[in-house]
Amino acid sequence: MATVAVPKVHKNFINGEWVEAKTGRAFEDRNPAHPAELIGIFPASSQEDVDEAVDAAQEAFKKWRLVPAPRRAEILYRVAETLVKRKEELARDMTREMGKPLSEARGDIQEAIDMTYYMAGEGRRLFGQTVPSELPNKFAMSVREPLGVVGMITPWNFPMAIPSWKMMPALVCGNTLVIKPAEDTPLCTHNLVQILTEAGLPTGAVNVVNGMGPEAGAPVVSHPGVSAVSFTGSTETGRLVNQACASSFKPCHLEMGGKNIILVMDDANLDLAVEGAVWGGFGTTGQRCTAASRVAVHKKVYGEFLDRFTARVKALHVGDGLDPETEMGPLINETQLQTVMRYVQIGRDEGAKLVTGGHRYESGPLAEGWYHEPTIFSDVAPNMRIAQEEIFGPVVALIPFDTVEEALEIANGVTYGLSASVYTRNVNLAYRAMRDLEAGIVYVNAPTIGAEIQLPFGGKKATGNGHREAGTAAIDFYSEWKTLYIDYSDRLQRAQIDSADLG
Ligand code: ADP
């Protein structure tokens, strides 16, 4: 199924030009389904390249901040339209680069399209407040201002959606940016930026610096010319980013790990819950920050759920994402495969019961790629490591429970707080779960994945630091308030001291 393509040598994008890294070094981008297939070669950048990119973005900011937001939005509309036109070709590039099935890759591009249209619409809103002043002949309002140059660090699991979640709101608010894409999926960002450029974005407004995290990402985060940072990735790296921003009070948005749960109550529609658990646990090979890596099931229906879930998971079609039959693709790289294999061993050592899966593919056509069998552990205790730590792979831990209280305690008993779901037909129970689940996103009768772009996205506890992406919440991060008072009384009026003459 491998697509034979000539690997291209790609460059950074700085100050409106495609340029090589000053280091002269490069890295390889390979297809995880067929690691022998080279997708492209990208520059391995360092501080010097970042410095140039930030200079360009600072220069561009001087003009871009003054472009009326509806005009900025027109460029985004054009970007969205090109994404629509080129969706299929972009999705194929994504599947080859990242491994997710083509249907999911199309979804990833669609999310970028949705976000781009949404943020283009914001160009004619960017609402502030106009409120009455307590004094006569005085006007009071607030407006949004851009922050300056935003530094963006992105992961590989949603290689076009996540960059668009950051770039589109930042741009419509009048910021310029430097993005350091994940080293496993630089082609998707390259494609997106090429489309932005073709749509007429001014020189220097968007800059791309490719490379590894510590060499190319860390200098973006710590650069004094970068006014704010948006990061999506692991909790360990997020902590470093947070620390690097703290000393200069740089606003920093962090979107990190998850250990999300599906709760299946005894009155649930079991067929629906099984479908949800399969999609939530094994969609994107479990490599979503919202993946349902834990499924807790009421003991009354545990046996039946386990049987149906196992049968469904055993039947999953694993393979190259370009094959239309494929339901689950490979892991992103060898390191991620090793991590999954390590956790399978940890689960066995902890005494969890391996129901199905548990191995990489040692022979046959999948042996060459970074594939791992879809894996279920049953009878998992909530405190086991496989039920506590983010694995980011096709491994689901099934946990039995007796009462609603116990279910909520299990759900909340992890350090993360991104996404949670409950399957029930009891409205009282559904509302109680919505109130008590410690998560940024809660689903009822749907799995832990499936966020839409018009609402806030993000999590609590070790998942995030209070900011949210998407919807108007993104606008709140990429703009700063300026409060304006206009006194047209021609005299000194003192707030809180002078009272209005009521005549
Ligand atoms: P993952 O393990 O899922 O790849 P990471 O947090 O390591 O998650 O990577 C997410 C993004 O963060 C990638 O673009 C990566 O290059 C970048 N990154 C890694 N280390 C650093 C760092 N020290 N500073 C800034 N960015 C980093």
Characterization of the model:
The protein has 503 residues and is α/β, with parallel strands linked by helices. It folds into two domains: 8-256 and 464-483, 3-Layer(aba) Sandwich (Aldehyde Dehydrogenase, Chain A, domain 1); 261-444, Aldehyde Dehydrogenase, Chain A, domain 2 (3-Layer(aba) Sandwich), CATH 3.40.309.10. Helix content is 37%, strand content 21%. It has helices at residues 47-64, 69-85, 87-98, 102-122, 161-172, 186-198, 213-222, 235-246, 270-282, 299-314, 334-350, 404-412, 427-436, 471-478, and strands spanning 8-9, 12-14, 17-19, 26-31, 34-43, 129-132, 138-146, 149-153, 176-180, 206-208, 228-232, 252-255, 261-264, 294-298, 353-356, 375-378, 395-401, 416-417, 419-423, 441-444, 460-461, 479-487. The strands form six sheets. Strands 15-16-17-14-13-19-20 form a seven-stranded mixed sheet, with helices on both faces. A hairpin with a 2-residue loop joins strand 2 and strand 3 (17-19). Helix 1 (47-64) packs parallel to helix 7 and helix 3 (87-98) crosses helix 4 (102-122). The radius of gyration is 24 Å and the shape is globular. The chain starts with 7 loop residues before the first strand and ends in a 16-residue tail after the last strand. Adenosine-5'-diphosphate (ADP) binds at residues 153-155, 180, 182-183, 212-214, 217-218, 221, 233-234, 237, 240-241.
